[in-house]
Amino acid sequence: MSSNKNPHGVIIQIGDILVSEDVVCAYFACDYTRCKGCCCIIGDSGAPLEEAELDRLEENYPVYAPLMRPQGRAQVEKDGFFTVDRDGDLVTPVVEGSEECAFTTFDADGACFCAIERCFFQGTCAFRKPQSCWLYPVRVKRLTGGGLALNLHRWHICADAFEKGRREGIRVYEFLREPLTAVFGEEFYSALSAAARRLNASS
To answer: In degrees rounded to 5, what are phi and psi of residue 162?
Structure first.
């Protein structure tokens, strides 16, 4: 593990993964009571997908499809389980004429949730949800040399989450402990936590 200064702040390197300073210094804690899950229905395109996730989306579809809206199921029937956005990236399909992810479900109060994750918590689905959704507000970028870069994505609809994190003293990497550990491993998270403690103690 190493860290270095650059014009954009400190970069933490853990193996072949580069982590921006904001991931360990900024505060964040999702405030669902305020946003009502609007990240599922607002955006320029669907959620980024890993190629390895495509089969799991399809395999578990019969389980989570009943929770989806008819518009979402119709979009999957039309486009399949992914589309390619203007940057050439794999993303979840979006309901035509809207910004709504096809895999979204709504409760009686109009709050939106991921249909896949709802089934996961019910114990009926083996796939939790796309990695990019679970790791948000961290975005993962593949580097030319084969490594990864983890950067903080700041989105105005999450303003309440950044404020709640600051109010409760929860850093981004702390809020994301479970997905960061699941995706990158316990050793990675331990190294990231150690780097965060040193960096935040010196600031």
So the answer is: -65, -40
Q: What per-residue string of b and e applies to 54-75 under the rule 16 or more CB within 10 Å gives b?
A: eebbeebbebbeebbbeebbeb
Phi-psi region of 25 (alpha: psi -120 to 50; beta: other; left: phi over 0): alpha
Helix (H, G, I), strand (E, B) or coil at 101: strand
SS3 helix, strand, coil % of the chain, rounded to 5? Answer: 45, 20, 35
Q: How confident is the model at residue 38 (pLDDT cuts 50, 70, 90)?
A: confident
Hey, where are the domains in the chain?
Answer: 1-28+137-203, 37-128
- The model's pTM: 0.89
pLDDT tens-place string over residues 110-168: 889 999 999 999 999 999 999 999 999 999 999 988 899 999 999 888 999 999 999 99
Return d(Cα 120, Cα 127) in angstroms, integer.
Answer: 7
Q: Are 193 and 19 in contact (CB under 8 A)?
A: no
